[in-house]
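fyi for ur records
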Amino acid sequence: MTNRLEATFERLRASRRKALIPYLMAGDPSLQDTETLVLELERAGADIIELGVPFSDPIADGPVIQKAAERALRSGTSLLRILDTVARLRTRTQIPLILMAYYNTIHAMGERAFCSQAVKAGADGLIVPDMPVEEATPLSSAATTVGGPLLIFLLAPTSTSSRRTLVARRSQGFVYYVSLTGITGAKLADLEDVRRNVAKIRRVTDIPIAVGFGIATPQEAAKVAAIADGVIVGSAVVRQIVEYQHDPRMPERMGQFVQSLRTAINSVG
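which gave:
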């Protein structure tokens, strides 16, 4: 059976459109807000949603997402509660949902138990930023045994040719290209460098390539969409949540921001 994530990219590719993938830190400011925001962002034009699992030492994330993780943990967010939220969302939406979790969180539950519960809840993909592809066999085996979630691996500007080939062959759903060497929330890297590296990845895989890190504005989203198959926007979305967290119209304002990203991406032929 085709995974929701794969089906979405197939549909977008057939219509020559690019995927918009906003990131939410699950539980920031609350899991109820996260549930509301997923539905609002889908209405605003998001194709896929990435849900961060809060962790106390998020080494790949900059201060914006680190603080979001701290707020989520203070609000009582846990991996099991996030999976419950995913299950509730599945009664209202079929938008692909990707979990971004650090490995300790998964290891504490057990790889097979985690994969089984994630699939049962309705999660489609998984990104583990601190798990190199070379060390992913236990998790990959567990995911294969229970039928998911799809494992998405990251490539960076510093990745060697052999590593590009390995990651491209092991990634499922899409390859996540990190546009810069650094943490989330940093300034978008030189677009020509992104263009060159995405072209190199395309030579070794036919699966979609999504670019993340450093994309903050509709203009930047459009420029990246002209290069890649998907655009991931994280820290910019989280900043908006912080700005409007006490505004009763926060979901609507978030929807307006995502709609502006969608409009910009759609302008790319």
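The mean pLDDT is 93. thats all i got for now
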